[in-house]
Amino acid sequence: MSYLAHNTQFVPTGFRKILYLNWPVIMLLMAVASAGFVMLYSVAGGSAQPWMEPQIKRFILGVVLMIGVGMVPIWFWRNMAGLAFAVSLALLVGVELFGSVGMGAQRWIDLGFIRLQPSELTKITLVMFLAAYYDWLPTNKTSHPVWVALPVIFILVPTALVLKQPDLGTALLLLFGGGAVMFLAGVHWAYFATVIGAGVGAVYAVFVSRGTTWQLLKDYQFRRIDTFLDPANDPLGAGYHITQAKIALGSGGWTGRGFMQGTQSRLNFLPEKHTDFIFTTLAEEFGFVGAFSLLALYVLIIVFCVASAMNNKDRFAALLTMGIAMTFFLFFSVNMAMVTGLAPVVGVPLPLVSYGGSAMLVLMVAFGLVQSAHVHKPR
Amino acid sequence: MTKTHIDPKASPRITRRGMILGGAQLTVVGALGLRMHKMQIDEADTFRTMAEENRISMQLIAPPRGRILDRFGAVLADNRPTYQVTIVRERAGDAQKVLAHVQMILGLSDDNLRQILEEMAERSSFVPITVAKDITWDELSQISINAPALPGVSADVVLQRVYPFGTDFAHIVGYVGRANAQDVEDNDGNNALLAMPGFHIGKISVEKAEEASLRGTAGRLSVEVNAAGRVMRSLDQVPPVSGADLQLTIDHHLQNFTLARLAGQSAAAVVIDVQNGDLLACASAPTFDPNLFVDGISSKDYNALRDDPYRPLSDKVVQGAYPPGSVLKMSLALAALEGAQVSPDETVYCPGFVEIGGRRFHCWKRGGHGRINLRGALRESCDVFFYEAARRVGIDNLHAMSARLGLGERPDLPLSGIASGLNPSREWKMQRYGKEWLIGDTINASIGQGFVLATPMQLAIMAARIASGKNVTPRLFKPQIASDLPGFTDMGLAPASLALVHAGMTDVVNAARGTAKSSRIVAEGQTMAGKTGSSQVFSITAAERAAGVRSQADLPWDRRDHALFTAFAPIAQPRIAVSVLVEHGGGGSLAAAPIARDLVLFHLNGGLPPVEAYPADQRGRMQTSLDELSASILPIDRHAQKERT
């Protein structure tokens, strides 16, 4: 019996796989999604319409999808990684050419039952593809410049396409998510140090140049950056939203103002209260206890994913699980930093809580991959 | 490709890097947790307050303004409920159609309608827009009847300031108007009430001076609003506290009579109670209708008032400073008697002029008065006598006595633009002109010419102080407690000095050779003492004299002398003092004294006097004049009669 056969013979088969799913993660996802249902009910003024009911339906569909994906062997997904990435790139280009324009920027492809945002899909397929790449690449070549340049291009192409939409939030997620997989795969730290150093240096140079003869940006560009970094400069525009969000969050106190008692959201002071800013409503109505509990649920999901990855001797599976966990982490942390005023508003929804179809389904498929990796790990 | 790719060396690396990444993630999560803690626990109160401020909008409820009453309780400034029509766009549906309907009912002009539509387009759809103000009862009924066809249209009551006596109290009560930017700044800059559309504040005189007590306290309606500013529900209401009513010392009948008596002239008259300083009448003619100003006066009306040569907008009682002329001789007489520079029996020879410092000063009587004493000099207003008295008394003593009588001092009254007049002194001339005081200045001052200026109000105060010998100060507000005699201190003048001046003033009106003998009162207990004054505005030039101009009547109006008269009555027990000024009236005895006489009689009789109060030879003429006056004044009401008896 080969080593390989030994490692795969204990992989469960058929419906027995259900017993081997990562049930703690499923429970946690359900808990988080339920919090979302409650908040969507609240921001609708105590009504299941127009947001909670569709969200529940989509979540159920998502759970089915997740389990379905989870039952399929991980090696199938590894083989599909290249194709998936190619398809999502093609879709990205497709929306660039034929996509509908909505909300000023977002572009999607209408699949009939769902409007698919290729950028959402790309977040997962990129991680999947990079994991497969490093699984394929012999370890001793990981830090070779050519083999480093290649994944950098894989990351930058979709990032550039998404930036062009423009969707800064997704672009950042792609950049950091892809970077995280490279880091986990063991690319020499010097590359990261160089990139971070160069980035910091460039930003520093741009800011230092301001007002000097060799100014690198135009004045109006600087002013845009000012508003972006400090929305208070634009109190009636971007600043209004973030100020109202902070008021909602801060006025929650320890235990909040009570379910459906949040004045900020009920009286429409909050912008995008069912999507990007839903966390502020939760914090307003359930206070620090509620907000911190949700944060803890998210952290637990990450912890279980990381634990699963570390116990997985399959390189692709481990990298994929870690990459998806990292993407998920970026999702909620950027959203929370944004609504608490720690980061500029870039338009990232709160995963599984914000109202939104394709984001949730894509995330559930991603967790399906995590489940597949968990179920099919070599024992 | 193998089914699984196991790399024993790679896994630990993933583990180690995973730990690093996990650590970074924990740091971020920690930062987020701390941030939430800081905002939700440490700064919760601040944010909670901000949320409340967001949520709750205070709507002010304007308080009814305090009324202004006369001494008998007649209402001089009132609040009249008026109906105004407003429209709320979002409730109107087809606003244009509804407005067309309203236009038909109220007869609005097309211009008007366009303005309303423009305003509507600028404001939020839930803000009420005023369509018409002060509509009649009939129009209101029409709007009400048609209410089902007029969605979004409503008629509300607003209080509008109204002055029932029209022109009579324009200068005293003043008027209210819309608060402008300057007013808002003067009122601490942040008084939201002033910014309310349609809110009025006092602009001049009592309305302005007593703004704080008249205004009252705004009520508040706390409403919950949503982000768009729409009212969701009302939370709390604090009713407004209306402003305090103010009672003036003015007798509205006397005031009305005074203005009727001054009609047709540019003149001012004051009647003051010498015992308590109550201002009973305080009239400047011509006057204007303050009601015109309440909702903004039209520029046509305003220009007419502004360009009138009789200056109706100016309150001549306190704003006009005139040379007092011979009226000042009382001050000089008192100064001379108190300083013993002139004894009561001493006589001075008046040949019609006197040479002082190489300059000839004329008496008004070219032929001279012959030998004359102080009492006679007052009676006949002999200038030469007072030139001599002034030479002895000196400007310092004259200045001091005039100051004691209230000249040169701005009276403390709630009126607008009060002038201080001018009581000249050596120091003043040095400061003003950088020149020494000359004897000629003293001589000019002795007959109330030269630098001396006084307002009719100051002359009334002077007359009241001479009449009572007390430091009378005027007041315009009636104290609300019964014992309302203010403790005026004694001026400290010798009774003999006062008695002699009183005697001189009595002679002016009542003696055969008195300058105002034609204005004497013969009714018992109502006799009047006074002093005439005529102050030169221009000298009659040599050219005019050559052209045959001999008297004031031959001169154009604005070159004639001002006519003045100050008086007190009754002589035995003075109750009131009167000062009258007629701009360019010619001589005080002809133009001013008869007015003072009529004011005294009207006050002492509580209305028009019986014709028997006048000397027998005047009764025929006076009867006609009384009949004319009775047609132009308010009928006396029982209420006022009761107070007088």
From TrEMBL, chain A:
GO terms for molecular function: lipid-linked peptidoglycan transporter activity; peptidoglycan glycosyltransferase activity. It comes from Loktanella salsilacus. This is Peptidoglycan glycosyltransferase MrdB. The chain crosses the membrane at residues 20-44, 56-77, 83-101, 146-163, 170-191, 286-307, 319-346, 352-370. It is a multi-pass membrane protein. Pathway: Cell wall biogenesis; peptidoglycan biosynthesis. Its EC number is 2.4.99.28. GO terms for biological process: cell division; cell wall organization; peptidoglycan biosynthetic process; regulation of cell shape.
Automatic annotation (TrEMBL), chain B:
Residues 61-234 form the Penicillin-binding protein dimerisation domain. InterPro entries: Beta-lactam/transpept (IPR050515), Beta-lactam/transpept-like (IPR012338), PBP_dimer (IPR005311), PBP_dimer_sf (IPR036138), PCN-bd_Tpept (IPR001460), Penicillin-binding_protein_2 (IPR017790). Coiled coil: none annotated. It comes from Loktanella salsilacus. It is a single-pass membrane protein. GO terms for biological process: cell wall organization; peptidoglycan biosynthetic process; proteolysis; regulation of cell shape. It is found in: Cell membrane; Membrane. Residues 268-599 form the Penicillin-binding protein transpeptidase domain. It comes from the Bacteria. PANTHER family: PEPTIDOGLYCAN D,D-TRANSPEPTIDASE (PTHR30627), PEPTIDOGLYCAN D,D-TRANSPEPTIDASE MRDA (PTHR30627:SF2). The keyword Nucleotide-binding does not apply. GO terms for cellular component: plasma membrane. This is Peptidoglycan glycosyltransferase. Keywords: Carboxypeptidase, Cell inner membrane, Cell membrane, Cell shape, Cell wall biogenesis/degradation, Hydrolase, Membrane, Peptidoglycan synthesis, Protease, Transferase, Transmembrane, Transmembrane helix. The keyword Ligase does not apply.
